[in-house]
Structure formats: structure tokens, C-alpha cells
Automatic annotation (TrEMBL):
InterPro entries: ClpP/crotonase-like_dom_sf, Enoyl-CoA_hydra/iso
Keyword Isomerase (UniProt): yes
Entry protein name: Enoyl-CoA delta isomerase 1, mitochondrial
Pathway(s) it belongs to: Lipid metabolism; fatty acid beta-oxidation
Amino acid sequence: MNRAPVNSLNLELLQEISKSLDEVAKNKTKAMILTSASPTVFSAGLDIMEMYKPDLKRAEQFWTTLQDVWLKLFGSNFITAAAINGHAPAGGCLLSMSCEYRAMVSGKYAIGLNETALGIIAPTWFMDTMCHTIPIRQAEYALTTAKMFSVEEALKVGLIDEAAADKADAIEKCKQFIRKFDKIPPLARAITKQKIRQAPLARLQKNRQQDIEEFLGILKNPLIQQGLEKYIQALKQKAAK
């Protein structure tokens, strides 16, 4: 991912990710490592400006594309690994959890689904992804409290699989994970993965339009817009210091 400064997921970046996932699948590539060109941020999550006072047609396209990215990444038949080389809140955490393996660079970085801190309810498929990654009780606590895990906390709870010294080390650990499948028949591995992940995938596929309508309904809520405005103002004040 390479959208300066913090890889905020806007419509265009999501379209590029979706296109890249299509290309990986089309080329029958064995595996993919997801990482960031930023030195300190994996992805800051969804671009707030896509949700603040939005054009509803663009917002619908934005959410549909995010659904596509998740369905392709979480449901891929190729091996996926995330080299998390910085902060990964919200959508950044979602992308990394959608991969099969996560190595995160040690340091003062944080990862988690913190939507409730903005007054936003994480969609069911965000929740499903976290519950698929860490124990349900831990996921419930994290989701309701908007908890951001340190690298050490994330490793302990299983949100990440390994801590790395730097980005190169994180990528190498991802490659080591991928090599574990060298002697495993790829079709057996792929079908096993997809069967394990079938329920969350089917739930979104069955309820895609309802999920879009819920998202648009949230954006129309004045309280949500007020919360987003306060958050944007806080970011501007922080940047000005």
C-alpha cells in the first residue's frame, strides 16, 4: 500500500487493492504479502473524509468496494500474509486480520478495531473477522472498548503471530510462513481454508445490500456526523502542534 501519508483507505486505494487481488488470483500466484510503503503506518484505516458529509453515490461505491476487497482477501485461495510495519487501527487491522498470518514490527505501534471510539458500530463482518482471529470474549472486550493493542498485547492474545525487528524481518517471517506449505498440496490447503472461513463469507454475501443500506444510514445520522467532525478537528489541532 502506498498512499501518503498514512495509507488511509479511500475509494481509489480500495479499487487499486481490489484490482491487485484480482491480478494475484488471475496469475495463479502461490502467495501474497501485504505491507506498507510508509515507515510508521501499515494503514490508518478507512478515510474519514469518505464518510464525513459524503456524496451518497460515492459512499455506496466506496462501501461496495470495501466489501469486495474483504471478500477477495479473506476468501482468497492463495496464501496471504501481512507484514505490519506500523500502526494498524480500524480498517488497517481488518486488512491484516483478513490475511492468514501476521508479523508486526516491534515498537510503539498499535493495532485494533477502534470504531466505537468514534461512535461507529463495526459491521458484522469486521466483528466476524476479529472473532475468527482471537477468542470471542477477547474480541467482544476489544470491540466494545475500542481497544488498541500494543505489539506485545497483540502477540499475547493472538491478534498477530510474531513480532519482528523491522520491516525486512517481518517480510522474511511472512516468507517463512509461506514456505510451510511447500509440501502441502495447494488444492487441499485452499479448500480447507475456504471451508473454515465459509460462514463469515456467506453471511456478507447473503446480506450485502442490507449492509450497504446500514452503512448509508449511519452516515445520515447527525450524531455520527458530529462525532466525525469532532474527530477531524482533533486531528487538525494535533497536526498544528
